[in-house]
Design brief:
The complex is a heterodimer. By secondary structure, chain A is mainly alpha-helical. Chain A has three helices and two strands, in the order ααββα. In chain A, 80% of the residues lie in helices and 5% in strands. Classes of the chains: A mainly alpha, B mainly alpha.
């Protein structure tokens, strides 16, 4: 792999990380802690929304984030020919 | 069949299973001992990581903890799962590509310094020992409650079992026993949860059940909020901790999770980088099953408890109340002598003391489930405690035999010699852990929080900077780790044990509790590392090449010992 390609590969990787970690931050610290009171004015079934995010939603989102990452990275690895 | 017989049968069967696996998968080389030969499949590693991670505390105590703290308990749920996102995205793939055996291996090589390596070994040892003492205690507790043996005998039995398969099997044996232990513990956790969810709400899925309506048509959570208020507790779905503190505690637990050596080392056992990513995904999925069920159990058992005991005649309480009173986990003192149980927030009038562990342990009895479920809980709790203890034990033994003996003290030691050293240090570590299990230091609860704080304040910044910042040098990393750890130790001992003049809640810096201080210490570590590295020479070229190399997934090969 050339230096040029390595730089590009790494940059794309960092962009994915920034995107996914922003989602990670928003669902947990955002919805579950900082804006929990505002969200608690809404409900899904018996759950207040903020409470649901703090005890359920954020965890589901974490699982989805990791699976998104696996998919994005395996595509990226293929694109640059660094997969195994 | 009686519950006691079921307990003996289920515990006996699962224990023979673990021992059988250990004999089948014993380690023959250091590579098998440290990283299971480096050929574990992503799903198996995900299962093993989940069992490794979920300790006696997750299985027995967490649901109860949430049950008593309501929304505030969310910090544990988010903190102990969100860390896996950091682990998967920032650490696991790169450390796997680096391809060594331990965390101090990475720190020592990346920062081209045996001082850095020694600091890392020291951190790994404190973190693992504080953790393992709690596990052995958990094993002892479960034995004493369910098998009616003395708590110390319980610890001893646990020691022998762990010793057997950790010393014999190393990482290889542990990996496959952990796979079995995950299956046992998740089944044991889910069965009562599903039963109770169905009983209380008619919904088979606990994750949905606790947001559903109870038999009287009121949403369960609204009903609980009402009950809590009536008795003077804070509303279940809203918290009492400050937003700032919630934020810091969650962050400390997340970052601490990502920095725990016994979790990180599991990702060295897979074949390639993409497998490391995948197994992080599997691990979190398997963990999430328990972690999304725990808050449901918390609500069910809280409602059950209040409805069963509050303002009821003591003489007419169900049998389980007396069973658990004997163990001391439930205590009733009729202060006003009216023969009724007053369970209220006001400490002066409250007559009932409930240990949080009871919320999981007594669940089957409270919900009148069949006897085999009680046996299942016993087997599950033991699986959770043993799997975590074994994982920690391996980190301790590898730190001593590989990082200290092989890398620092006696580099010319033979493979065979190192393997013997690894087994001896595992043996000694079990003895020491067992000693702490029998004579628990009074600060065990406090030190678990300390373990997370320390992991956050030490390893996490050093590893992340080592991967993402090529210019980071040994001066910066060592200074950062040392200052981060010392700051964390200072704050913890000051506010938990009253050293350095002690202090109360009002004296907390920026209102941050000792549990959340790891986040602060981590930030200090980052700042110190960056500033110091700016004023000291860049790392040598070959180290910068290592960093470039770990950023590319291909060519990871197997974990190699140079």
């Amino acid at each position: 792999m050339s230096k040029q390609d390595l730089k590009k590969y790494w940059k794309e990787n960092l962009i994915y990380l920034a995107g996914l970690l922003s989602v990670w931050f928003v669902v947990s610290y955002g919805c579950g802690i900082l804006f929990v009171e505002e969200l608690n004015n809404f409900r899904i079934g018996g759950f207040k929304l903020g409470f649901w995010f703090a005890q359920q939603g954020s965890i589901y989102a974490f699982v989805v984030i990791i699976y998104m990452y696996i998919r994005l990275m395996s595509k990226l690895d293929k694109k640059y020919g660094v997969d195994e | 069949m009686s519950a006691q017989l079921w307990i003996w049968i289920l515990v006996g069967v699962t224990f023979s299973l673990y021992i059988g696996i250990a004999v089948w998968a014993r380690a023959g080389s250091t590579k098998e001992f440290y990283v299971a030969g480096g050929g574990v499949s992503p799903i198996a590693n995900g299962l093993a990581t989940a069992a490794d991670w979920m300790s006696a505390a997750s299985f027995i105590s967490m649901a109860g903890l949430i049950s008593f703290s309501g929304y505030d308990g969310s910090v544990y749920l988010m903190g102990w799962t969100g860390g896996y996102v950091l682990l998967a995205l920032l650490l696991a793939p790169y450390l796997r590509k680096f391809g060594k055996f331990t965390v101090p291996d990475f720190i020592g090589d990346r920062y081209y310094s045996n001082i850095a390596r020694t600091v890392a070994v020291f951190c790994a040892l404190i973190i693992s020992f504080t953790y393992i003492a709690g596990q052995m205690r958990g094993v002892g507790l479960v034995f004493s409650r369910y098998l009616e043996v003395d708590i110390n005998t319980g610890v001893l039995i646990g020691m022998v079992i762990v010793l057997f398969y950790a010393v014999l099997g190393g990482m290889k044996g542990i990996t496959y026993t952990q796979v079995a232990q995950y299956c046992v513990l998740i089944f044991a956790f889910m069965v009562p949860a599903i039963f109770i969810s169905f009983q209380m709400t008619g919904n088979l899925i606990p994750q949905f059940g606790f947001g559903a309506e109870a038999s009287d048509g009121v949403y369960l959570l609204d009903k609980l909020d009402g009950l809590q208020k009536e008795l003077g507790f804070h509303e279940y779905t809203s918290g009492s901790k400050s937003t700032m503190d919630l934020f810091f505690i969650t962050a400390a637990l997340m970052v601490g999770t990502a920095g725990l050596p016994h979790v990180i080392v599991r990702f060295f056992t897979v074949k390639k980088v993409s497998d490391a990513r995948k197994s992080a995904g599997w691990a979190l999925l398997f963990i999430a099953i328990l972690y999304t069920t725990a808050p449901a159990i918390a609500v069910f058992s809280r409602v059950n408890l209040i409805e069963t005991v509050s303002n009821k005649k003591y003489s007419e309480l169900p049998d389980w109340f007396e069973n658990w009173e004997v163990t001391g986990l439930l205590q009733f003192e009729d202060k006003n002598g009216d023969g009724l149980v007053q369970y209220v927030a006001d400490a002066k009038q409250n007559e009932l003391t409930v240990d949080r562990d009871i919320m999981v342990l007594a669940n089957p009895e409270i919900a009148q489930l069949p006897n085999w479920v009680i046996g299942l809980i016993a087997a599950g709790a033991l699986a959770a405690a043993l799997s975590t203890a074994a994982g920690l034990l391996l980190v301790i033994s590898a730190s001593v035999s590989h990082d200290l003996i092989k890398k620092i003290v006696k580099p010319d030691i033979s493979e065979k010699g190192e393997l013997i050293a690894a087994r001896i240090s595992a043996f000694l570590a079990v003895i020491l852990a067992g000693y702490f299990g029998v004579n628990p230091p009074g600060f065990v609860a406090a030190t678990v929080a300390l373990a997370f704080g320390l992991a956050a304040a030490s390893f996490f910044p050093a590893i992340v900077l080592g991967i993402f910042y090529k210019r980071m040098n040994k001066e910066g990393a060592i200074a950062g780790m040392v200052i981060g750890v010392l700051l964390m130790l200072f704050y913890m001992t000051k506010f938990k044990f009253g050293w350095f003049g002690g202090g109360s809640k009002e004296d907390w810096w920026f209102g941050i509790s000792p549990e959340g201080f790891g986040t602060f210490a981590m930030l200090v570590n980052f700042v110190v590392s960056l500033v110091i590295s700016k004023f000291t020479p860049a790392p040598p070229n070959n180290v910068q090449e290592i960093v470039e190399n770990i950023r590319i997934p291909s060519g990871a090969g197997e974990a190699v010992d140079h």
